[in-house]
Amino acid sequence: MNRKKDQFIFGWHPVLEAIExxxxxxxxxxxxxxxxxxxxxxxxxxxxxxIPVQYVPTQKLDRITRKAHQGVIAILSPIEFAxxxxxxxxxxxxxxxxxxxxxxxxxxxxxFGAICRSAECFGFHGVIVxxxxxxxxNEDAIKTSSGALMRLPICRVPVxxxxxxxxxxxxxxxxxxxxKTERLISxxxxxxxxxxxxxxxxxxxxxxxxxxxxxLVRIPMDGKTQSLNVSVSAAIGMYTVMTAQxxxxx
Length: 250
Known about the structure:
Strand order of the largest sheet: 7-6-5-9-8-10
Helix content: 25-40%
Structural class: alpha/beta
Number of helices: 9
Largest sheet: 6 strands, parallel
């Protein structure tokens, strides 16, 4: 994919300034093996602000630009991230029942875009994503989401299971969708404040998420193919939560 030039910031001082001024940064690329206080300052500031840092060979940086990048490149995010605590508080303040989705390691950008499209269609208040091990939140994701990513609050968190725990402490039930359970999604009460958790396309929910979830559920299926694409599973789960909450209001 071709990126626009203004999606990158080059050089340790411009990158540091971008971090300090609060620009939305997808991640910071740092040349492997560099040893200097200025680089430690950049990476330290990035981690303080929960911006992912990736150490890469200088050849990768050179492929992005032929300019003097000084071993540091920041990739700007096309979307603005929301704070999870503030989002939860605003939902309750508005008198609404929280309806959230957590993506625990969705790596395919099209799957993520499709999931966000469904989340916005089904009235979910926001999507929680980890800082690492996640599909890039770029123009492809926005396009696949039909623009929903620009309208839907996205909360980037450093540790997913801590975010799940925070939601539980805020009265939100955390429900993981997985094939590794006999309980059906129709077997539990979904009209309460709810966060659905979707796992990686290949490995499913992480061990920490499996341990943290209040319930683990699966979608009933009669066919011989016993698995669904993660974006399809997410859409079914979100529709089920939406209709359950609507019935509770009615």
